[in-house]
Amino acid sequence: MRVLGWVCGGILALVTAFWCVTATADLALSAGVYGTPGTYKVDTCIDTSNTRKNSNYDCYGDFTPDGGTADDAVYVHLKDTGHDYPDGTEFDAQQGIEPQTIQRVGFWGIVGELWQVAVCVTILAGLGYQAVKPRRESHSREPSRRQKVADRVGYAVVVAVPVGILSLIGMAAEPVP
């Protein structure tokens, strides 16, 4: 049973680490750490969801680099934007290394990506805690070094969970431009 737990934990850690890397790259793009700054203008958004309960919006529009002209604009299809932007909406965006990678920049762009990083940190810290914590409680007065390390890893969960929740609340409260 212990081996199965380690195997499942290892697989979950690998999947979460991959998600964390991609989410962190998106967060860095939204923060303007790399990429080409510019403006994204929405032509149209379409609800691609087949259900009536949930919406999944894909938007089509043009990204124009700062200082560029209409000739420099790149037509970009944004998948799963989370919002039904009205036609003609413009917002500041950052183009990644690939021309089709566009992220909204500024406060709302960061808030929109931060929850993913917080969830990844929470899962990885929880897995780390499970791997490091002692199997048996020590009856001595002083906690073991292993228990101290596990407690410190647990602090990451205590910080990451509220950050993720606040980011999700901020995303829900985001005004549509």
List keywords for this structure.
single chain, 177 residues, alpha+beta, 5-stranded antiparallel beta sheet, 3 helices
Describe this structure in words.
This protein has 177 residues and is α+β, with helices and mostly antiparallel strands. The protein has helices spanning 2-30, 107-132, 145-172; strands spanning 36-47, 57-65, 74-78, 90-95, 102-104. It is built from three helices and five strands, in the order αβββββαα. Strand 4 (90-95) and strand 5 form a beta hairpin. The model has no long low-confidence stretch (mean pLDDT 84).
Number of strands: 5
Helix content: 40-55%
Q: Proportion of β residues?
A: 15-25%
Largest sheet descriptor = 5 strands, antiparallel
Q: SSE order in H/E notation?
A: HEEEEEHH
Question: Largest sheet, order of strands side by side?
Answer: 3-2-1-4-5
Summed up, what is this model?
This protein is α+β, with helices and mostly antiparallel strands. It has helices at residues 2-30, 107-132, 145-172; strands spanning 36-47, 57-65, 74-78, 90-95, 102-104.
Topology:
Layout: H1 2-30, E1 36-47, E2 57-65, E3 74-78, E4 90-95, E5 102-104, H2 107-132, H3 145-172
Antiparallel strand pairs: 1-2, 1-4, 2-3, 4-5
Helix pairs in contact: 1-2, 2-3
